[in-house]
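Our consortium's second objective concerns turning raw sequence data into structural hypotheses that experimental partners can test. To show how far this objective has progressed, the report includes one record in full. It was chosen at random from the queue rather than selected for favorable results. The single chain below, 303 residues long, was entered without modification.
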Amino acid sequence: MASEQQQNQQAGQKQWTVLDLLNWTKQFFENRNIESPRLEAEVLLAHVLGWQRIELYTKFDYIVPPDKRTQFREMISQRGEHRPTQYILGKTEFYSLEFAVNESVLIPRPETEHLVEALVKRARELVEPAVLDIGTGSGCIPIAAAVNLPDARFTAVDVSPDALEIARQNAQKHDVAGRIDFRHGDMFEPVEGMLFDFIASNPPYVSESEWQELMPEVKDYEPRQALLAGADGLDAYRRLIPQASAHLNPGGRLLLEMPAGKCGRIREIAAQTPFVVEEVVPDYQKIERVLVLAIPGKEASED
């Protein structure tokens, strides 16, 4: 009977087709409780081969070269430890744009695209609007907005120097670096005395109890400071909303992404400030996702 070492050697000598690798990896991921195991396998293998995913089905009998198998094996080993696919690949898509990501930045989520849409819609009404992004992370919000608002100028703040480095790289990639001023610091400290037409933010909003229940992909890999926000997950809103009013022009807006089920409590925080609620934007699941607050002025209107 062959030893385990001999079996491994035989497996290494086997000619593995695309279909063989996908089937094996799907089972490997299932055994490690990876969500969407087949899709994850396809994304990683397509990346290694430099193909579109559809090509995996049209070339399922293609024999994958040993060097590509080695690269793929390293990736599936990392994914088996629940490291997010986006960090393994070093990139993700957001607002139809590719962004570099690593463990120093939160992985952009589709929900945040609703925030960008709400910002772009309103900023198009102004000439050369000034926009501030608080907690920019990968820079996905100001960069996606800048691509769609060619006359707007942006300031992006983050407390993490490593995150700002990734954001700068992404801005250069999309040719908007000249219109985004990246600044290091906490909340509004780096923009003291400055006024804007719009402030946007996707602040941390995970509560301490929710933190314990997070998937390992999030809890073990994504930056804690970009996620955790106190006992009820609203600490960042309590700081951000009152301070924001002092940095907006009359008629200016504050646009905030919100966690599911907490819109009412965030509105209560806003009610203690000069802001009025202009709109609550739902996501595709009808969850209240973006809160648009306005400073009273000719642009503002209560809901």
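The partners drew two points from this record. The first helix runs from residue 4 to 13. The first strand starts at residue 91 and ends at 94. Both points have been shared with the crystallography group to help prioritize constructs.
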